[in-house]
Write a structure and sequence with these properties.
The complex is a heterodimer of chains A (195) and B (248). Chain A is an all-alpha fold and 195 residues long. Chain A has nine helices and no strands. Chain B folds into two domains: 120 residues, no CATH class; 79 residues, Nucleic acid-binding proteins (OB fold (Dihydrolipoamide Acetyltransferase, E2P)). In chain B, strand 4 and strand 5 form a beta hairpin. Classes of the chains: A mainly alpha (195), B alpha+beta (248).
């Protein structure tokens, strides 16, 4: 018994293997990802908590049913984020509802990172700037918003975003540039840093 | 609810006896994608092989001699059906490549280019192995609308008023400079070719000729070539395949 690894020490692939043998182990995967994915689904546009939880339940069931599809050439987190992304989009489609922009709380670490990346005037008050970025995020195109969410709020790298959205790396890079440009265009022009 | 989420899902899995889809289900899907991709590649390559074979009938340098601009000659002789088929199966190959497990990682342009190059290379290999000729032969013997759909060169070479005549040699005449040829409409032509080369102008041999009409059903050839693609189609005109009849 002493040699048994703690549940928290098991990596995702190991948890998948155990879940295939015993469904009860799947609850460890749920516990590991539910908060991250709930935040992600809400940021994608399920601003209503109940809706987000419905999506979460459906997506975890889908993950369980498709456990055999996962293979280790992909990070498990990329694979589960991909399913979460697709499930959220299909949920919006089924309800024929446009994803509602979710207001990013001002204390979210990614917000400052994003604001710094937009090359805005450094003299603008930080809180004012973060607030404006958060509001601008609600105005831009959903496709642009989702890539910004993955990069700055979910802190995924280009390879992971490519695996989640199933798009080539070059497309991810150019989509991200366009997303940042459209976000910048939503900011007051007097804040645009003169180069 | 969120704190109970794990338990809710595990209960649902147990109550509804849900089990993960078997691994073979996913392997089969991947296998089908690759199989359809391979089939698309083979059909696309076969189209390339036939087009390359059809190109053997193309007198690349002679279009201006016979009243055609290069563009006009190209429009008349382009194998539209095979180009369409190649385009369709290239798209299918591209679609299947993009839907393989890793297909999304490669840019659209490179996948499309890879599909095109693979089809052309395999098509040229098929051509070298005689696949283009074999397909044209089978279609020429059996396919209805062969001349209208599969081989535009039959139309191209069936324009005696523009100096192009194709058909099947059915007889040598007593005059050693003439022979009889029947065209695709089973019209009989007395063709003059000076001197008639009997080792080349064989009875039962499909030929094509450049020249001019010199009278009713008379054609003076200045250049005679073997029919490459369409050979089997013209063989349909031979004895035992519906016979011949004289033009009125």
């Amino acid at each position: 018994m002493e040699n048994q690894p703690l549940e928290s020490e098991l990596d995702d692939a190991e948890l998948v293997r155990l879940s295939l043998a015993d469904p009860a182990t799947f609850s460890l995967i749920i516990a590991r990802y539910k908060d991250k994915l709930l935040r992600y689904v809400r940021r994608l546009g399920a601003s209503n908590l109940e809706d987000a939880e419905d999506i979460l339940q459906d997506l975890f069931l889908k993950v369980y049913l498709n456990l055999n599809e996962f293979n280790q050439s992909l990070k498990f987190s990329s694979w589960i984020y991909r399913i979460a992304h697709n499930e959220a989009i299909s949920h919006f489609r089924k309800r024929q509802a446009r994803p509602e922009a979710y207001s990013i709380p001002l204390d979210t670490p990614g917000l400052q990172l994003l604001a710094n990346d937009l090359a805005l005037d450094r003299h603008v008050d930080g809180i004012l700037r973060d607030e404006a970025v958060s509001k601008a995020l609600m105005k831009i195109d959903a496709r642009h918003r989702e890539i910004i969410i993955l990069k700055f709020f979910e802190e995924k790298n280009y390879n992971e975003i490519s695996d989640i959205l199933k798009k080539p790396l070059g497309t991810i890079a150019s989509l991200l540039n366009r997303a940042k440009k459209s976000l910048r265009d939503e900011m007051p022009s007097k804040w645009h840093e003169v180069k | 609810m969120q704190s109970d989420l794990g338990q809710t899902i595990i209960d649902k899995i147990k109550n509804e006896s849900l089990v993960p889809k078997p691994r073979w289900h996913f392997l089969l899907r991947e296998w089908l994608v690759w199989t359809f991709g391979t089939l698309a590649l083979i059909v696309g390559a076969a189209s390339v092989a036939v087009m390359r074979y059809l190109a053997e009938n193309s007198p690349w340098a002679m279009h201006s001699t016979y009243g055609q601009t290069f563009a006009g000659w190209l429009l008349l002789s382009l194998p539209y059906f095979w180009l369409f088929l190649l385009g369709l199966f290239l798209w299918l190959l591209y679609y299947n490549l993009k839907h393989t497990k890793r297909g999304y990682r490669y840019p659209m342009f490179y996948v499309a280019l890879a599909a095109l190059f693979a089809s052309i290379l395999l098509g040229l290999a098929f051509y070298t192995l005689g696949v283009g000729r074999a397909i044209d032969g089978v279609l020429g013997r059996k396919a209805p609308l062969y001349a209208h759909v599969f081989n535009p060169h039959v139309d191209f070479w069936s324009a005696p008023e523009e100096g192009r005549l194709a058909g099947l040699v059915v007889a040598h005449t007593a005059d050693e400079n003439t022979f009889i040829l029947i065209d695709r409409d089973r019209g009989e032509w007395l063709v003059t070719y000076n001197p008639r080369d009997d080792s080349f102008i064989l009875i039962g041999q499909p030929l094509r000729a450049f020249g001019t009409i010199t009278g009713e059903q008379r054609f003076e050839a200045v250049k005679i070539m073997r029919m490459m693609s369409g050979r089997e189609y013209f063989q349909r005109l031979g004895p035992g395949n519906g016979g011949m009849h004289r033009n009125k």
